[in-house]
Amino acid sequence: xxxxxxxxxxxxxxxxxxxxxxxxxxxxxxxxxxxxxxxxxxxxxxxxxxxxxxxxxxxxxxxxxxxxxxxxxxxxxxxxxxxxxxxxxxxxxxxxxxxxxxxxxxxxxxxxxxxxxxxxxxxxxxxxxxxxxxxxxxxxxxxxxxxxxxxxxxxxxxxxxxxxxxxxxxxxxxxxxxxxxxxxxxxxxxxxxxxxxxxxxxxxxxxxxxxxxxxxxxxxxxxxxxxxxxxxxxxxxxxxxxxxxxxxxxxxxxxxxxxxxxxxxxxxxxxxxxxxxxxxxxxxxxxxxxxxxxxxxxxxxxxxxxxxxxxxxxxxxxxxxxxxxxxxxxxxxxxxxxxxxxxxxxxxxxxxxxxxxxxxxxxxxxxxxxxxxxxxxxxxxxxxxxxxxxxxxxxxxxxxxxxxxxx
Length: 407
Fold this sequence. Notes:
30% of the residues lie in helices and 24% in strands. The protein is α/β, with parallel strands linked by helices. It has two domains: 179 residues, Flavin prenyltransferase-like (Rossmann fold, 3-Layer(aba) Sandwich); 195 residues, CoaB-like (Rossmann fold).
């Protein structure tokens, strides 16, 4: 996917900048041309000479550089945007993220970001201390950049420069190159193009009192991956999600909810108009019968909590769906249980069920990989091995496309 492609690599002033010469080498090895744009502070962490040597181009910093790939050096901040096939910012610091969000343009990196053609993909790889990454200001700025079409590559977990361990490490260069290749891969001619798709994702929270709730470990990553891939294939996607900390996929309309009742209310607004409903959310089966206002005091040695059944969102959709609408569900078990998945397929009148076994290591909640066994109404079984959830979403939608009525 990268042979002959032109990549702008923006490097910011974080400790992870030391990885960028290796990142440039990987892009070059994949056949890409690379132009490095560095902030002034980036060159405190990585040598300008090393970046220029591996990229075989001068590193650009100021607005009035005289050399570059553009035909007119005086307007290089414009011609670079025409030349590039993709713009990658790695590592992206909190400061640069805020400047890009605010529309500031006082160096070559920020000016080229502003003048980049809107049809060119942008990949931002944040890298900073975990507390910084989780701060409301940074999250707000990242959400704004995602809303304008930038793709955000989630930081990795591990040892940080502060000596602490947690989320905030720049993804490895190999992962960044793979993500750019995926962005530049042409979208397949898909039967999903133009269809209305509703995806539910994440957990639900069922209130016990004003400060406590029942929930589960769902991170929403599988549902978000499905929504992102459906949008890439041209679908009009509405993502109804429980409480998660994930960035909204580009081109997806997001509706945030908390409880199962709220998820049903939000999703049901699209029941009549959607062509495909994918229930990937881990909806709580039960909720407290009578949530308490305020906080329950610890007065007794024991406490009884009476639970009642939550609404069945997939069942509600399937029961009233019109001819031609497709219904897809997920079934998770902690061991075995494929018979339960088949039973769920029949009971909820699904067209396809995606069954997976939770092991807490490579499949299930909170991890970036999964494995699925797909079962359709004709009894066809497709086993998908452990792979990243984004790749798995593509395989799932390939199977769903086979179920769509002829268009």
